[in-house]
Amino acid sequence: MDLKELYSPIFIRHLGEAIQREYPLFQPDRLLADCLRADWPKLKLMERRDRLVSSLHRQLPADFEQAAPILRAIAPQFTGLVAVCLPQYVAQYGLAHWATAMALLKELTRYSSSEFAIRPFLIHAPQATETQMLRWAHDQDPAVRRLASEGLRPRLPWGIRLTQYVTDPAPIWPVLRELMTDESEYVQKSVANNLNDISKDHPQAVIDWAQTYWGQTPQTTWILTRGLRTLFKQGNPAVLALEGYALSAADHLTGCSLTPTEQTASLGTTTTLQYTMTAETGRSLPVYLGYRVHYVRQRQGTTFKDFYIKRTTIRPGETVSGQVTRPWWQLTTRKLYPGDHVIELLVNTRVVATAHVKLTVGQTR
């Protein structure tokens, strides 16, 4: 199912009826008609969300202080991605009511997430909102602690880019410092993603941070490994060394090969690739094995994506072999085009072998 279909007529009616129980003047039928105008099928996920929020505003009390208790009352009935329409209402109509908005976003994030909605407040009232985020980093609820990190991400997908933190991430560090040893995996993933965001603009700052916290606890090492993933894929020597891998490992391997079982493939099929390599005698080699697919674009050029195979240690003289399977299926996040696809075998991010698969147009699955 396309994600935009989460905002279905059934959901919109359910939402309208829930509001009507709290606010009898609200008309669910009017809400449904206002949303499902002629262009509705063409609207993307977030466009549908924004249409719904505007339609809600046309019927809810114009005074945000009166609308807020209604949203708070219905919030427990709606969870997941589809429920981000409620925090978004706060973002659009609560900017002039900072204290009420903060209390409501904290409540709403327990059922969905306020990570998108907090961002306009960080732009319009940065100091007060940053202070609030640091308070939330100490909250007992992991959903609220996660909001403290996720809302501050400079490059949050689908969210407003926080250019002030792209330029200077200094206000983020106190929140991440508080959450580096958090026991909730939900929070840990957010901290890692925040670090990964920062690393795209301030790689050395993240490396310095990682070198400070590496090995302190299993949680910190797990967070840092995920947070350093972009720098790792780029083959940053300091990051590779921190994780126990050396770029030079590829220089001590022989017989490296990557061989597809078929030289051609069609949409809806898969390709199996056999790989092998042998370590020289003398020392064991910690290796991170992966492969990179260079996807043909609609026009000239390619774009690539890296895939993980495994982490292992190759003993002196040992031969390591295995296989990977690459599906050639159309995805909403990546469209495939026919042509010569280059696939590279990676050892500690370095290319050690190359294969070619020609993708043709065939039956899709």
From TrEMBL:
Top-rank lineage group of the source organism? Bacteria
In terms of Pfam families, this protein maps to: DNA_alkylation
Read off the InterPro entries from this record.
ARM-type_fold, DNA_alkylation
Q: SUPFAM superfamilies from the xrefs?
A: ARM repeat
This chain belongs to the protein called DNA alkylation repair protein
- Please name the source species: Levilactobacillus zymae
